[in-house]
Amino acid sequence: MTPNPYRIDGPALVSFSGGRTSGYMLWHILDAYDGQLPDDIHVTFANTGKEREETLRFVQECGMRWGVYIVWLEWRSRLKRTPVAERFDRVGFNSASRNGEPFERLIESKKATPNQQHRWCTEHLKVQIMFDYMRTVGLEPNSYREAIGLRADEMWRVFKMLDRNGREGRQCVAPLVSAKVTKPDVMAWWANQPFDLGLNAVEGNCDLCFLKGKRNLQSLIRANPESAIWWDRMERSGERTFSSRYSVRELVKDAAAQPMMIDGDDEFDAECGLWCAGEAA
After folding, report:
1. pTM (2 d.p.)
2. Range of the domain at 176
């Protein structure tokens, strides 16, 4: 009998980015255990404060509808001298930051803004605090499996994951790859569910993530000009831009100058929290 790819031997960490792909993976892992995860399988969601409200509602709804406990985390400190339990905050849907507070604290700590070459925002705001949380339950990195929402149509990311496993001793697994799940499979499944994320691929989880293409960012700013205020303020405060090719202020100017421009294309398909770490959903 072929083993169920969604039955992950614990201890394990299920990284839930708040997107459809990782949500699909989470439900199927739950289903493999008849709706009740073993105590040594932990599900976490890391909030940067720049996730869209739709993402936060989606994470909350997944937890409530499916009866699974999702640990909500927010970054607090990157200093090694800080006790592990004080490097992050545990929050929930009501108390989660919605104005970029964790992200802004990190930028102030680094005295810089991340960019496409230096994507340390996800390293600290998403990945590291999940590791720190696991330490607080007695599990050191590399002592447990990490279930990552990689699909079978993202093999270049899978190869990166496998390479990192070999170099760093990680135990990342991609159950969707073993199950041969692709993006159309994920979208078709969600189309038959009683609820959904409610975002298109261009919007993504992080409202103006700098990994989105320029046309996509202009389209998003055109639809919601206020979304650029925080990103512009971060650039002006550090006198550095999130992109080496343009500033947020330039994007705002271009979006205003072309109000009828056709929306951006579907070039960005990574769920925040996974792309930068080579674990795209």
Report:
1. 0.90
2. 12-191
